[in-house]
Specification:
By secondary structure, the chain is of the alpha+beta class. The protein has one domain (2-111): Beta Complex (Phosphoenolpyruvate Carboxykinase, domain 2). Helices cover 11% and strands 21% of the residues. The protein has helices at residues 32-37, 125-133; strands at residues 2-3, 10-12, 18-22, 42-45, 48-50, 55-56, 65-67, 87-91, 108-110. The chain has a three-stranded antiparallel β-sheet with strand order 1-2-9, with no helix packed on it. The chain has a three-stranded antiparallel β-sheet with strand order 3-8-4, with no helix packed on it. A hairpin with a 4-residue loop joins strand 5 and strand 6 (55-56). The longest helix is centred in the last third of the chain and has 9 residues, at 125-133.
Length: 140
């Protein structure tokens, strides 16, 4: 969170620079945006490989694995080609819905109830825990 330069408005942005997710089951039908993001410029772990060295995982609708996630010739009798917890890492800028305003000073305004103070001093752990447990949240 950072000051916006617009008075007391707090703004925030995603501090990370991308996405990290489980890849099995990801395809154009199950998650179009994720599939479009990971088609290039992506790091994969524990996926299978096709004959042309492209990553492959269960649920992918194209290609055929020739090497499993351990680098062995793929044999369906030995289990899945890609590890069930295989992952991808990709830049947020690859997201079709990425906003170019993410890193601007205006970023995204954060609204908060005017009665909620950001910091409060408490005398003990019990006092602080009781205070936080008794707070109500603002529903939208």
């Amino acid at each position: 969170m950072a000051a916006s330069g617009r008075g007391r408005t707090a703004v925030g942005h995603q501090p990370g620079s991308g996405y990290f997710g489980v890849v099995p089951g990801t395809n154009p039908e199950t998650n179009r945006n994720a599939y479009e993001m990971i088609r290039r410029d992506t790091l994969f772990t524990n996926v299978a490989l096709t004959a042309d060295n492209q990553p492959w995982w269960e649920g992918l609708t194209s290609g055929k694995p020739v090497l499993d996630w351990q680098g062995r010739p793929y044999d369906p009798a030995r289990g899945p080609a890609a590890h069930p917890n295989s992952r991808f890492t990709v830049s947020a800028r690859r997201n079709p819905g990425y906003s170019p305003h993410d890193r601007t000073p205006a970023a995204c305004p954060i609204e908060r109830a005017p009665s909620v103070r950001r910091c409060q001093s408490r005398r003990s752990y019990t006092s602080g825990a009781t205070s936080r447990a008794g707070r109500r949240t603002r529903a939208r």
